[in-house]
Automatic annotation (TrEMBL), chain A:
Source domain of life: Bacteria
Organism: Dyadobacter beijingensis
Name of the featured protein: Phosphocarrier protein HPr
The family this protein is said to belong to: Belongs to the HPr family.
Domain (HPr): residue spans on this chain: 1-86
Record Pfam families: PTS-HPr (PF00381)
PANTHER family (UniProt xref): PHOSPHOCARRIER PROTEIN HPR, PHOSPHOCARRIER PROTEIN NPR
Subcellular localization: Cytoplasm
Major localization class: cytoplasm
Claim: Repeat is one of the keywords in the record: no
SUPFAM superfamilies noted in UniProt: HPr-like
Keyword presence, Cytoplasm: yes
From TrEMBL, chain B:
Residue stretches making up the Phosphotransferase system enzyme I N-terminal domain: 12-135
The species this protein was found in: Dyadobacter beijingensis
Function: General (non sugar-specific) component of the phosphoenolpyruvate-dependent sugar phosphotransferase system (sugar PTS). This major carbohydrate active-transport system catalyzes the phosphorylation of incoming sugar substrates concomitantly with their translocation across the cell membrane. Enzyme I transfers the phosphoryl group from phosphoenolpyruvate (PEP) to the phosphoryl carrier protein (HPr).
Keywords: Cytoplasm, Kinase, Magnesium, Metal-binding, Phosphotransferase system, Sugar transport, Transferase, Transport
Source taxonomy: Bacteria, Pseudomonadati, Bacteroidota, Cytophagia, Cytophagales
Subcellular location: Cytoplasm
Needed cofactors: Mg(2+)
Name of the protein: Phosphoenolpyruvate-protein phosphotransferase
Listed Pfam families: PEP-utilisers_N, PEP-utilizers, PEP-utilizers_C
Amino acid sequence: MIFKEYTILAPEGIHARPATALVRLVKKFKSGISLKKGEKTIQLNSLLNILALSTKGGDLVSVVIDGEDEAEAASAIDVFFKDLTA
Amino acid sequence: MTTTKEPSRIAGIGVSPGIAIGPALVVRREVVAVTGITLANAAEVAAEIGRFDEAVSRSVAEVDGLIAGLTEAGNDEGLDILETQTEFLTDPQLRADVVQQIEEQFRTAHDALVGVTDALVQLFLNMDDAYMRARHADVRDAGDRILRHLGGRARQTRTYPEGCIIVADDLSPSDTIALDLTQVAGFATQMGGPTSHAAIVAKARGIPAVVGCVALLDGIKEGERLVLDGQAGELVLRPDDATTDIYREKQQHFAEQSAWLKSLRDVSAVTKDGCAVQLLANISEPADLDQVFENGGEGVGLLRTELLFLGRDSLPDEEEQFGFYQKIALKAGKRPVTIRTIDIGGDKEAPYLGLAREENPFLGYRAIRICLDRTDIFKTQLRAVLRASAFGNFNIMFPMIGSVQEVRAAKAVLQEVRKELAEEGVPFGAEMQTGIMIEIPAAAVIADLLAKEVDFFSIGTNDLIQYTLAVDRMNDQVAALYDGFHPAVLRLIARVIEEAHRAGIHVGMCGELAGDPHATRLLLGMGLRSFSMSAVSIPRIKQQVRETTLTDAQCIFEAAKGLDSADEIRAVCQSVN
């Protein structure tokens, strides 16, 4: 199991377009991937759930990746959050 | 039955500027009702789930077909909307909710989907963020598409007569893509806000649009003549000839203006002989940045921070300030942003500071003078700025500096805050440069001494003029004496620029003179290469820069040097080379 923390760098949070990209990225892996903001935890394979979380720029989120390909998934997720800017 | 009706107006929110004149084409969304049918047994439940999955597959195939069509046409905004819709259609949460309603409440796939979609639409509509609220339309759109396939109905295609104005209760993302934008002159919707797809697409394509027009559909009939003003956010129904003529003229003016702006936005501010000039904007809050980018600003030369402190009952704490600066840092990205620390005094409304009423607030207890006295306030602001600087490209500057000692004292506090943050392990931008405003004549006179203390100067002309000439421009009886072209003011400015160059530090200007097109060549001639102004002034100044040469600018400066009145200097500055 891999645990990662990120600050959302996109000023307006995770909008529909990057959220779509994130869901598609997550679906490529067999690992279960979830995201936690505050008290809420969601599975990252659902666009509805990502948007419903309504993240804002500056929010701190944590991602938990668990499964056989977790190392590859974690590095892909890492790239996604680091590139997620304006 | 024909009746002659009077012209009338409907107000909304203008989301894409421009004027459209044409006949109305009315578009209404079909209302979907729940059937109330209850399933009889487990076999029917399984069959309904199967029907739902089947309808989703057909919906996805339909969207795939649309994507293929758009890819060929090179329509990128449309593609994004559809890629997102595919994810909504196949969302595991959506399916789980629908299946649950079918299995546990014995509802049909149709009813379950209507229920789930309605709940999701409500969830999004209740969000505190305007962008997320607008996403309810995407959910509704995806739901409607699956519903149509559940009912076995194919998508109907509309035809749009050329030059029509679409008038709709709401335009779904799919509607927006289906609109043949080469035919449509503009559109107005009853629902929707500035972040709806319709608004975004309209803006991207330069089609005038107004949203949020309450009771729009009650007043308009198909084919009726309309004027739509996307700037004012207004519709005129049944305009008479005189009104139409006025709007035709506006339409013409807008077209010329936007062509001019467009021609300048993406070109660089370089003189004819190749000297690059930095054009920045003065702003007060994060939202102002949009206008900066639209006008081609390279960054922010002055972020006023007073807005954080005014019109409230208590000081903003570090977290609130951090949030404000961080928003700006994230939005500006790599572009430079120069933050001015609090410039507050007895003339501004901040009762919680307990500032006494002063006879002469502009010569009183204000700005850095308060900060060096009330270091608690100052340190909180500096901590917030430093922390936010980790997310962007910040510089910081102190206003109302009159002596070397004040700069040293302010820098000492900044250093203290840096040390504290480092000890706490809190990240901050190590590269942040420190500068001062040159707005008190004393500072201009000792520019050589001050230059040894800082990384940059920013010349604040508004205060520099009023202090140098001892003129309060709010006082009508002396306002005419307030003049940036007064030789005394210009000598001070020239001196500051020269001393900055001698010391090898950066110098910019952030007062109104920087945005005055008549002063551009003169300031270039003095050696100024960085101008910060209100965002809307940027295109005009850029045009000035691009039409001149450095040689010409230096000639203007030389000619102005020998003159003894502001009027003569202004005349030289306005002369055509």
